[in-house]
Write a structure and sequence with these properties.
about 325 residues; Nucleotidyltransferase, domain 5; binds zinc ion; globular; 5-stranded mixed sheet
């Protein structure tokens, strides 16, 4: 149940939210009634960044974003702000993208100033998992005292809402759950360490486990999920290991943050049924008795609109 009207208590503002994903952007118009218009634009920023120098990559990103926002801007001239959820570390003070692990070369870039100039609207850039977590929190009626969001996609991202507010951390790096080390000396991660959670619990991590077990490289996690449902023992084990490793990392975080609710979203969460049994068992095992059975874990309710809603509502909150 969306509780946008709980937050938008005066007037009827209209906001544009953008969720920058791995291979596409989702752009939506958000009012107190929810997402009233939405479109997808194909864009693989990470691939472009790998193949082009940083200046060209930044131009491409800015052109793609402003192009994608032009249509809702024209359709909804009353739109009063734009919020963008972007994969990377966002400085909480300046909202510059300090680093984006999947977009090499993109360091300390300002997307806000050029976009707000071109669009003639206030623009806010936030971390994509922070936006998705806040969107989930709103979709769940904002009742929990605190909530952890975990996004299982190509990598693993996360965010935390404390006392109703998303907490980005001093450097915009809070809840980088994907890089918790769960297997010291394990698989080499893009961050430079070994044995990070996302090497086992993300789409690519599940594919790596399957490749190790079955000797069949290059299959994607969605196909492995199909194999698992058909009874392939290696595919089943790849998801079961992902679930256990995720619980291992989450139990440590819950002992620090003690929030009552955890939401699992992202593409891999569609196969949650394959991870749930080992996840539940390992979570209960690793939690301290005071927390066992007292943390509610559920999958996303906002489907793929959480990122749009969260980004738009963070832009709205910034204006007030
Ligand atoms: Zn890592």
């Amino acid at each position: 149940m969306l509780s946008l009207s709980k937050i938008i208590d005066s007037g009827n503002p209209c906001l544009i939210g953008v969720d920058v994903g791995g291979t596409n952007l989702r752009v939506g118009v958000v009012t107190k009634h929810g997402v009233v218009w939405e479109q997808r634009v194909q864009a693989d920023f990470a691939a472009f960044c790998r193949d082009h120098p940083p200046d060209a990559a930044l131009d491409f990103i800015l052109d793609t974003l402003s192009g994608a926002i032009q249509e809702p801007r024209a359709r909804y001239p009353q739109a009063c702000a734009v919020g963008i959820g972007f994969p990377g570390f966002i400085d909480p003070a300046t909202h510059m993208v300090t680093q984006s692990p999947n977009m090499p070369g993109l360091l300390d870039v300002d997307l806000v100033t050029p976009l707000s100039r071109v669009l003639n609207l206030p623009v806010l850039v936030e971390n994509d998992a922070l936006a998705a977590g806040y969107g989930e929190y709103i979709a769940d009626n904002c009742d929990a005292a605190g909530m952890i969001y975990i996004g299982l996609g190509t990598g693993v991202g996360g965010s935390v809402i404390l006392d109703g507010k998303p907490y980005p951390g001093a450097h915009g790096v809070s809840m980088e759950i994907g890089h918790l080390i769960v297997d010291p000396g394990g698989r080499l991660c893009g961050c430079g360490n070994r044995g990070c959670l996302e090497q086992y619990a993300s789409a690519s991590g599940i594919a790596l486990t399957y490749a190790e077990l079955a000797g069949d490289n290059g299959l994607d996690s969605a196909l492995i999920a199909v194999f698992a449902r058909d009874g392939d023992v290696n595919a089943i084990e790849a998801y079961r290991r992902g679930g256990a490793v995720l619980a291992q990392g989450l139990a440590s975080i819950l002992k620090v943050l003690d929030v009552p609710q955890v939401v699992v979203g992202g593409g891999v969460s569609q196969s949650w049924i394959l991870m749930k049994e080992t996840f539940d068992a390992r979570l209960q095992q690793d939690l301290i008795p005071a927390l066992r059975g007292r943390v509610q874990v559920r999958t996303s309710q906002a489907d793929d609109q959480a990122g749009i809603i969260g980004a738009a509502m963070l832009a709205f909150a910034r204006m007030h």
